[in-house]
Write a structure and sequence with these properties.
By secondary structure, this protein is an all-beta fold. Helix content is about 0%, strand content about 40%. The longest helix has 4 residues, at about 435. The protein is globular, with a radius of gyration of 27 Å.
Length: about 550
């Protein structure tokens, strides 16, 4: 039995065996038993003339516009959650006139939205307080790929670092704000990378509203990418599933079907782990006719027995990527074992990351229904820059600015935030506070010209040495030029980096690059009692002023023996 766009308006009701009892937030799970069948008696859909109205038979009723595919109503336990600022929940900022159809297949209702080459889907399951969503973006006719759940004001109070402030003062580009106490807020700020979260949302303690992210196989940026997660202000809030936003992207956009991601209501806790990426199974969707859908049987797996040559002080991640898809999995701390499932067939670049620093790459091919098993991966000593013997080193080679001054704060605050320590200040090797005193970011117009003081033995001063500076991203072609005492390096070529803002919108993630400088023996001071002085300047002909001048984020720097 199914509803269609052209049938008369009427209620579709089914008595099923599945769902949580009335008054309970069903996170996901099996169909209700016969004893609770009455709670699912209202499962079905209707047409109110402007919208398709879906009752999940639990505590959730939602509406989808027949005109443009917007989610126009999101009512849970009789309370309307949808909407702020007169806007609906939708793909991107709304698709415009679309073809919207609905069908019911047993215990599943599917609403399909077609907007040019873009296809979007909403699915409801009997007895669940969840809405499953898929988005198939075939080309660039829609500028970005994101879904925004817009939530009414006052339902969830929030003043977290990843939110707007209640009385904002704009300090940058109309999307970064300062509060009266000097703390900064922006919807761009995200303390969590994609790999760090499975669901994002709010809770009152008795009601939770979350977006459970997809596996991001058609997103761009890898496991360490940061993007919009949520925001909340006096006029309402937004929860996001970002697949491609065009901000600080390190990879080309991928196209194709992405999902499911899930709008989930709960009794106040986080959604059931059964909904999380890597755990969520949707065999019930295999026969729904979703464009681009690939069932589990059409996917494969990559498994590795271990990784040798690891530094066990760090977490290791294994990533798979090609132009069509991306995946990742954590390597077991004891031996480096990993398994990555649900992979679309194809040939991928496999990358092993120490922290966020790539230390090994190879190629793997995945087949439908098969497992590609890899023998122990050996990380070559030369692939990890931390293995090189150094006279001195500041920071750690892990692909992040972790440990440097203000590094942690910068994922959820603007550099001008009152909580930030002074961006200026010099460093003395041997002080014991070298890394904590060295700024995570260096800008041409803010703190260029940082000084590092160090002494050398007579033998060290008699030889040439290599100086290395690792960076994680750069803005406006910013890159370091160094001066050692009176010796001045050449200006290095700018590395390939995203062209959009990064350092001021909570992201240090770009393309890790190491600059090397061959410093001749003549540059050093021969008196072992004197300090040599390393000066680091950021050079670039682009950028504007202050924190939007050319800048870079530092991973580590060292002087090799």
């Amino acid at each position: 039995m199914s509803g269609s766009l052209n049938r008369p308006v009427r209620r579709r009701a089914f008595v099923l065996g599945g769902a949580a009892a009335a008054g309970t937030a069903a996170l996901s799970g099996p169909l209700p038993t016969a004893a609770s069948a009455a709670s699912a008696a209202s499962f079905g859909w209707s047409d109110d003339g402007s919208n398709y109205v879906v009752d999940t038979g639990a505590n959730l009723v939602f509406k989808v516009s027949k005109t443009n595919g917007d989610l126009t109503s999101l009512a849970y336990r009789g309370t309307e959650y949808q909407g702020y600022g007169g806007k609906n929940s939708h793909v991107e900022s709304g698709l415009g006139s679309s073809t919207v159809t609905i069908k019911q297949s047993g215990t599943t209702i599917l609403i399909s939205v077609a907007y040019g080459t873009l296809k979007h889907y909403y699915a409801a399951r009997s007895g669940e307080n969840n809405i499953y969503l898929w988005t198939n973006k075939a080309d660039t006719s829609v500028s970005a790929t994101r879904y925004i759940v817009r939530v009414k004001a006052g339902l969830f109070l929030n003043d977290e670092p990843d939110s707007y402030t209640y009385a904002p003062t704009v300090i940058e580009s109309a999307d970064v704000f300062a509060k009266s106490d000097g703390q900064t807020r922006s919807k761009h700020y995200a303390k969590r990378r994609v790999i760090d979260y499975s669901a994002i949302g709010w809770t009152t303690g008795s009601v939770g509203l979350y977006v459970v992210r997809s596996n991001h196989e058609k997103a761009s940026g890898g496991p360490f990418y940061r993007s919009l997660l949520r925001h909340q202000s006096t006029d309402g809030g937004g929860l996001y599933e970002i697949l491609y936003y065009g901000e600080n992207q390190t990879e080309a956009e991928r196209f194709g079907l992405q999902g499911p991601y899930v709008i989930a209501f709960t009794d106040g806790g986080t959604p059931s782990s059964a909904l999380y990426p890597g755990t969520l199974t949707t065999a019930w969707a295999d026969s729904l006719g979703i464009s681009g859908y690939v069932a589990a049987s059409g996917r494969g797996k990559v498994a590795g027995v271990g990784i040798s040559g690891r530094d066990t002080a760090y977490a290791y991640t294994v990533g798979l990527a090609n132009s069509a898809a991306q995946y990742w999995g954590s390597a077991r701390s004891s031996d480096g074992w990993f398994s990555i499932g649900g992979v679309l067939p194809g040939t991928y670049t496999l990358t092993v990351f120490k922290g966020e620093l790539a230390v090994h790459t190879t190629s793997v091919t995945v087949t439908a229904g098969g497992t590609t098993t890899l023998n122990t991966i050996a990380i070559a000593s030369s692939n990890d820059p931390a293995n090189a013997t150094a006279i001195w080193r500041i920071g750690t080679w892990d692909g992040t600015p972790a440990g440097f001054k203000n590094a942690e704060l910068m994922t959820y605050a603007h550099p001008s935030d009152v909580r930030a320590a002074a961006w200026t200040g010099n460093v003395v090797i041997g002080s014991g506070s070298e890394t904590a005193s060295f700024p995570a970011y260096i800008w041409k117009d803010v703190n260029s010209g940082l000084l590092v003081y160090f002494k050398l033995t007579a033998a060290q001063a008699a030889a040439a040495h290599t100086l290395r500076i690792g960076v994680t991203t750069a803005y406006a072609n910013g890159r370091p030029q160094v001066t050692v005492n009176s010796w001045v390096s050449s200006i290095p070529s700018p590395p390939a980096q995203p062209s959009t803002r990064s350092l001021t919108v909570g992201s240090y993630r770009g393309n890790n690059t190491t600059f090397t400088y061959s410093v001749p023996a003549s540059a050093w001071l021969s008196d072992t009692g004197q300090y040599n002085v390393l000066k680091i300047d950021v050079v670039s002909g682009s950028g504007t002023t202050s924190y939007l001048s050319a800048g870079t984020s530092v991973d580590a720097l060292d002087l090799l023996a």
